[in-house]
Batch of 2 targets.
Target 1
Amino acid sequence: MLSVFKDLIRYNREFTIGLLLVSLIVIFACLSFFSPYPAQDIYVVIPDQPPSWQYWFGTNSRGQDLFWQLSFAFRNTLTFGIIVAVLSRLISITIGLASGYLGGWVDRILMFFNDIFVAIPIFPILILFYFVLRSDLNTYTLAVIMACLGWAFDARLIRSVALGLRFREFTRQAIFAGMSPRKIMMEEHLPYVMPIVFSTAMANMIWSIGFEVTLAVLGFTNINIPTVGTALYWANNHSAMVVGVWWWIIIPVVLLVMMFLGLFLLAVSINEYIDPRSRLRRMGS
Amino acid sequence: MRAYLLFALKRLLQLTAVVFAGVSAAFFISRLSPISPVESIIGRVSGNSSFSPQAIESLRSTLNELFGLNIPLHEQYFNFLGRLIVGDLGPSLIAFPTPAMQLVMLALPWTVGLLTVSIIITWLLGNILGGLAGYYQNSRLLKAFGVLAIGVQPIPYYIVAFLMVIIFGFLWPVLPISGGFSMNVRPGWTPQFILSILHHSILPATSLVLVGMGTWFLGMRSLVSNIVTEDYVTYAEIAGVKEERIVGSYVIRNALVPQLTALAMALGGIFSGTIITEQVFSYPGLGTLLIRAVNGGDSTLVLAVSSVAVIAVASAIFVIDMIHPLLDPRVKVE
């Protein structure tokens, strides 16, 4: 595991940049544990101060220090992304491996549902959930809903790998040795799909955080919980761009783009590492 | 031909299943809502005038009947399915008593138009450029384009659209940033009106193209860079086949097939992106309507928009799947 990591850093510039960007954001998010102000308090500092030595990211029109506010926001957003990624990975691993290994009618039924989930447009459904739950739609509820909607694409990917493993020598040996299907899937096949699980986890985080930001910006989540989306929501709500408080919008957007770019580079470089052809090309050159 | 028909039949079955599942989910989620359309209309009507309790009671029962809420849930569900087929979901709340479906049908052409044009541009441009970048791997320009694609691709629609509003609305105001057409133009099939529509659609369409193109570019580039190492390409090169022919018919055409499948799979997400883009640019499409409906607490309209969205996306996927065998003669049956 560690040597893979070293290889990636040595031969893959994208991975290094991605790792750097994501680490920066994670450190920034962790700073929120040392915040001098509680996350939801307003009018704790002078409003509308531009970035300065005292307020690194400036302050917003609600009298919050943007530095600490955004670090809370990124903590919540990252937590949300990780919860969605972990939950949806669990679902897609289970479905993908079962479908690929068991085959037959199990495969056909699971993939039938899979195709339905892939095809349904998610955004109207999410808005429908907001319509019903209103401000009960907090980070955790939304994470569970997103996880239930976001597993399908990756389950198909995992299935395609598991399908290839099914007729390999070691699988047959495991069956003859009397391993139960569950054990074969979990102990023999799972390691093979783990790289895919990692790279799709990053892509999944981009996907889910993108939706979260969008919903929050439109005001369609609990807007009192600081996330990156709600930060932008309040900035729009106070017409930050029009009254000239540009740092309220530009800084979160820049940080957000850094995070997305970092996650994306990680996903791409891990993906490339999985494919031996492109890995060889990179190491040779 | 028989195989193609079988393939089409299978896809049609799948289309029905997707529509059925999506529409049913939309119905049951919307019925969980604590806001009753009936009570909110009564609240609005009786807000600043006094009615006798009997009058309100009879209003309530009339409205319950109008919205079809006076029967058990499962009957409501079957009613809903039946009425969806004939395209009548009852009156909307934000524009009471205009039928919800009428509002949806007014908004639908805008979304479909914007979506179709931007998808076609995005997909073709992204794939052609990506294909060229995969084939000519040493081109500086295409390499720079690749870096740009990586940079823009992971940013969500909302942020890109929003940045474009800031740039073209505040910093360099040259393009209209809101609405579907100018206020002073009368809607109709006049050149003036069509030009106005095109002028207003530049920004939303460009933002969709910008975000979407990266995915196709990167996907196509990696597909093509794998294909060019195949023996048949090397053989064609040695045999002296014209370069354009190799790139166009041998390499890109082959790689387009998985990209078409990917398009079908990505369509739901692209549709979601359009909804957001519309909201940012106040474009008069389904997205804006959906958000107005949510803010107005209009459950009928929300349900109508969601159902139509599910049907539209599923049908579009079906159409793409039907094109598939035409592009790739090998795929007669899956």
Note: Chain B touches chain A through 52 residues (CB under 8 Å).
Target 2
Amino acid sequence: MPVGADGFRLPTVTEEASKPKIEVLAGPSQCDTFQTFVIQDEDHTLGNALKHILLEDPAVLFGGYVVPHPMERRIQVRIQTVAGESAVSVLKRSLLKLKQQNLAVKKMIQEEVERYKAAHPDHVQ
Amino acid sequence: MIYNNRYKLDQHVLSPDTTSGNKTPTLRTTGSGRKSSPFDEDCQIKIWKMDNKNLEIDFIGFHFSLINAYRRIVLAEVATVAIEKVFMYQNTSVVQDEVLAHRIGLIPLKVPPHLFNFKPTDCDQVSEDNCVKYKLRVKCRGKNDPQHQSTLKEEDGVTTLVDKLVTTDHLEWEPIGNQATVFADNPLTPLQEDVPLPPEVKGVNTSLVLAKLKPGQRLQLEAYAFKGKCVIKVAANKQGELEASVGDARYDSCSRNVYNYDNIKDAVELSRNAKHIIFNVESQSVMKSYEILDAAVDVLIEKCDTLLAQLNAVEDS
């Protein structure tokens, strides 16, 4: 959790700028359709939500995430896709879907809050 | 005894909204009905109870992972303003400096976070946009000492005389820059608990006690509040609960006591409806309960945006 007490301080802005938020790993076990991504400064919050979105995609053969160490705020997302689809494009598609779901939820919450406020004008100032 | 008429629990419907006269509340629906929906299934959102402090909202048809992300964001990543630095000038009370500083850091402040920027990385950049300053200058006179506050001189270093208790009331807000004019109507004082009390109840102290002093003891300190990403005293929990009886399923804790009775245990099946999430938000800060949830959704949208922008940049290079 990003609690900024000095003992467990957040990385400063300059440190964060030196590391990209998302990294596409290179190496012998990486290829276009079987790729690991390292996402800095994220945890189960994004990882779990993203994993479920990934698994809904028919192009995904394997999708998962790990938190390599609980004291380091970073997750690794591993995606294997069917031939002809690149893992990067699937990840982008999934992130876009997650964002659109959020926008939809936001709109629904706002509509519902307005409805509730109208129905109970004395409950909320 | 064999029960033929088994009652399947996921068919159980949660009790209707009793606070309004409307027994069949209309639900906001999205999903397969609309082609543009990003959800695979029908999804509904329904608020059951809402005021500034509490929110009980049902997410129906959503996946747990998304709603759990909101819960985690509400707890850890919706930013509020809290006291972060305490400069202790004098502390002759029995409360140790670090203990007192920690207590002060937990005070909920009446500071709207959306009007402030995040904490600066450099102390030189402290300004009216990102910092709120408080001072505590109290001395205990003792109960039998008639000394009045107006007799205090500047060289005493204290501005307030107390009998025993030092509370959040004694924390003085010291406006930085234009804060005095901008927040003239809503001073950035510690949050006051607005408990509605019957008129016959008197002498209730609704402010938070920071320390207890003996005569002559004094406290002099400065406290600086910044907007960080740590929410204080905001609790959210989530239960997916359903019960067998036609009572109020909303407040059932999924007790398994029914299995203690041999004669009825076979008639009961306890299960959860994984598609119906009851989401509670309790606010103890200046943000209203529904604003916290709204901010949580924004945080997740921002995460997606950051990652998408970076991925596009990686591809372009």
Note: Chain A has one domain: 13-123.
